[in-house]
């Protein structure tokens, strides 16, 4: 990385902690001879401070490296908005929670220096993408969720589509369904009774939400599998939600297709796999 290549900053809005860390990050970058650029939404949220710096739009012209400061939702939103752009994120936690963000304030300056100098492990978080009636939606890092929108029962069928074969995986009458990645296995899917899956595996987890069929259990399948989800004609309306960030209305008869996303989320990590499960369970305990 040359000295002239700018590094972007995205910060969670309405957070004094995130704002302070973003200002600190900008100062560290300047000390390293790197121009800090602030994402347009962040600049608007903190117009009196960060808004005075140069800006970029993460959807159209993101720099190759972007520092994300906030919680898991901040990173997930940045990932969705960045689309297929080749971006490497540095994930900085603003507060006590946020498992996907592994850099805290105590090591911020050191990690930014490593980030600028390419001294990190690049971890690829595989994603999935959804189509609704043929219309493509952004790729999801954690999960694609179908959930009742009016409290009425969602009735759907899940199929595994091969080239010359369609296999029915399950029929669900209940609150809906979660299709999660291994990264998302410790998020909503886990709350709904799904398993913790090692993120180094390339699989997806199908987790029914409160089905009346008490025998139904989560199913783990290869991420390369292609799924079709059909909303039955007698189903109530539902929402399809991507990573808690994008919401689409679903009606009876609608079809959702799930495919592997070709572009993973790229995150600069530091000792990410060291004591991974110990950190995971400690973080889960913090929600008690």
From TrEMBL:
The keyword ATP-binding applies. Its cofactor is a divalent metal cation. The active site is at 72 (proton acceptor). Keywords: ATP-binding, Cytoplasm, Kinase, NAD, NADP, Nucleotide-binding, Transferase. Its EC number is 2.7.1.23. It catalyses: NAD(+) + ATP = ADP + NADP(+) + H(+). It is found in: Cytoplasm. The keyword Cell membrane does not apply. GO terms for biological process: NAD+ metabolic process; NADP+ biosynthetic process. It comes from the Archaea. NAD(+) binds at residues 72-73, 77, 142-143, 175, 245. One of its GO terms (molecular function) is ATP binding. One of its GO terms (cellular component) is cytoplasm. It is an enzyme of class 2 (transferase). Involved in the regulation of the intracellular balance of NAD and NADP, and is a key enzyme in the biosynthesis of NADP. Catalyzes specifically the phosphorylation on 2'-hydroxyl of the adenosine moiety of NAD to yield NADP. Belongs to the NAD kinase family. This is NAD kinase. The gene is nadK.
């Amino acid at each position: 990385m040359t000295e002239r290549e700018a590094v972007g900053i995205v910060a969670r809005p309405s957070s004094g902690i995130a704002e302070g860390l973003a200002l600190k990050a900008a100062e560290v970058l300047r000390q390293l001879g790197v121009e800090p650029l602030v994402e347009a939404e962040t600049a608007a949220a903190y117009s009196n401070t960060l808004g005075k710096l140069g800006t970029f739009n993460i959807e159209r012209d993101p720099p190759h490296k972007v520092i994300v400061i906030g919680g898991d939702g901040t990173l997930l939103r940045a990932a969705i908005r960045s689309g297929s752009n080749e971006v490497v994120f540095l994930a900085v936690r603003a507060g006590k929670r946020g498992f996907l963000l592994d850099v805290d304030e105590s090591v911020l300056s050191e990690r930014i220096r490593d980030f600028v100098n390419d001294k990190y492990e690049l971890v690829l978080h595989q994603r999935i993408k959804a189509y609704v009636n043929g219309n493509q939606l952004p790729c999801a890092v954690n999960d694609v969720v179908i959930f009742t929108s009016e409290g009425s029962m969602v009735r759907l069928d899940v199929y595994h589509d091969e080239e010359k074969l369609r296999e029915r995986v399950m029929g669900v009458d209940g609150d809906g369904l979660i299709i999660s990645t291994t990264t998302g296995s410790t998020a909503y899917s886990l709350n709904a009774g799904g398993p913790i899956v090692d993120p180094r595996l390339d699989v997806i987890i199908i987790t029914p939400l409160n089905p009346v069929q008490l025998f139904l259990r989560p199913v783990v399948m290869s991420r390369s599998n292609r799924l079709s989800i059909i909303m039955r004609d007698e189903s109530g309306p539902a929402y399809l939600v991507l990573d808690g960030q994008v919401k689409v209305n679903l009606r009876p008869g609608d079809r959702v297709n799930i495919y592997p996303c070709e572009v993973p989320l790229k995150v600069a990590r530091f000792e990410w796999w060291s004591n991974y499960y110990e950190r995971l369970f400690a973080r889960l305990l913090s929600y008690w």
